[in-house]
Amino acid sequence: MSATAMSNANFITHVTTLADCVGQTPLVQLQRLPEQEHIENGATLLAKLEGNNPAGSVKDRPAFNMIYQAEQRGDIKPGDTLIEATSGNTGIALAMVAAMRGYPMTLLMPTNSTQERKDAMIAYGATLIEVDEGMEAARDLALQMQADGKGIVLDQFNNPDNSQAHYLTTGPELWAQTDGKITHFISSMGTTGTITGVSRYLKEQNPDVKIIGLQPDEDASIAGIRRWPAAYMPGIFDADLVDEIMDVDQRIAEVYMRKLAKTEGIFAGVSSGAAAWAATQVAKNNPDAVIAFIVCDRGDRYLSTGLYNVDDSHIDNDADNAA
């Protein structure tokens, strides 16, 4: 064998598939965001950087698992059209996995979602249908399309493969990355797959780990976080797995989103700002706590909102005091 052929063979042994790149995201310690009182009481704040997944969000995990498990059961086969209602990140992730595995993908999305998210779905080859009436209407339309024989709905809101993805991957990663020392886990709640899957795993390791979910307050509209009407509460949600639910003010979430970028170099969306704020609040009351929170995605999918161009110099103290 020639030297070139040997070199190529050595290279090939290290090649992986895109599917193998989902998960194993970094867990990083915040250095400058925590106020001095957090540092003095020994609390540690850790951010799980889910934007490092191939399609850029925590939703890569359930997207891959929902399609993979459906294949294993024989529920779908390459060439079948898949349908899903999404506010953005799940749709992008599903479009990526569908392209990877050979499925036409139809996504239904509220019209007010950011243009970056819409463009990303289309870039992966998905068909995008915009719905004026919001997420609930998008979910209803997806089910109607399935009833009309236009495809198969994966149904992230009621599909146990969603939360299973986090039970199998995110939870074990957090436990290993903290050497089993994690005391609090914080996650925004949308489909609730992340919080239920992670909670189930962590509480099996240590029932004393506190699980804190985030929902927008009555007046807030935060991408990726929902306050569901009772009729639309995700079927995969298990209230027994969540110890506390915190309401998040939209202005504070946006301030902390910008703080993450400017003081930590973590460029993320508004729901991640909400989680960072919640982590600081939990830290105040829990000396020596090890607090991990989910940074759901990357900030580049929100640039068109103009949210990063706001000067917080005159409201930072007000936001902290309001918190």
From TrEMBL:
<dbReference type="Pfam" id="PF00291">
    <property type="entry name" value="PALP"/>
</dbReference>
<feature type="binding site">
    <location>
        <position position="89"/>
    </location>
    <ligand>
        <name>pyridoxal 5'-phosphate</name>
    </ligand>
</feature>
<keyword id="KW-0198">Cysteine biosynthesis</keyword>
<dbReference type="InterPro" id="IPR005858">
    <property type="entry name" value="CysM"/>
</dbReference>
<keyword id="KW-0663">Pyridoxal phosphate</keyword>
<dbReference type="InterPro" id="IPR005856">
    <property type="entry name" value="Cys_synth"/>
</dbReference>
<keyword id="KW-0808">Transferase</keyword>
<dbReference type="InterPro" id="IPR050214">
    <property type="entry name" value="Cys_Synth/Cystath_Beta-Synth"/>
</dbReference>
<feature type="modified residue" description="N6-(pyridoxal phosphate)lysine">
    <location>
        <position position="59"/>
    </location>
</feature>
<dbReference type="InterPro" id="IPR036052">
    <property type="entry name" value="TrpB-like_PALP_sf"/>
</dbReference>
<keyword id="KW-0028">Amino-acid biosynthesis</keyword>
<feature type="domain" description="Tryptophan synthase beta chain-like PALP">
    <location>
        <begin position="20"/>
        <end position="297"/>
    </location>
</feature>
<dbReference type="InterPro" id="IPR001216">
    <property type="entry name" value="P-phosphate_BS"/>
</dbReference>
<comment type="similarity">
    <text>Belongs to the cysteine synthase/cystathionine beta-synthase family.</text>
</comment>
<dbReference type="GO" id="GO:0006535">
    <property type="term" value="P:cysteine biosynthetic process from serine"/>
</dbReference>
<feature type="binding site">
    <location>
        <position position="271"/>
    </location>
    <ligand>
        <name>pyridoxal 5'-phosphate</name>
    </ligand>
</feature>
<feature type="binding site">
    <location>
        <begin position="190"/>
        <end position="194"/>
    </location>
    <ligand>
        <name>pyridoxal 5'-phosphate</name>
    </ligand>
</feature>
<protein>
    <recommendedName>
        <fullName>Cysteine synthase</fullName>
        <ecNumber>2.5.1.47</ecNumber>
    </recommendedName>
</protein>
<comment type="pathway">
    <text>Amino-acid biosynthesis; L-cysteine biosynthesis; L-cysteine from L-serine: step 2/2.</text>
</comment>
<dbReference type="InterPro" id="IPR001926">
    <property type="entry name" value="TrpB-like_PALP"/>
</dbReference>
<dbReference type="GO" id="GO:0004124">
    <property type="term" value="F:cysteine synthase activity"/>
</dbReference>
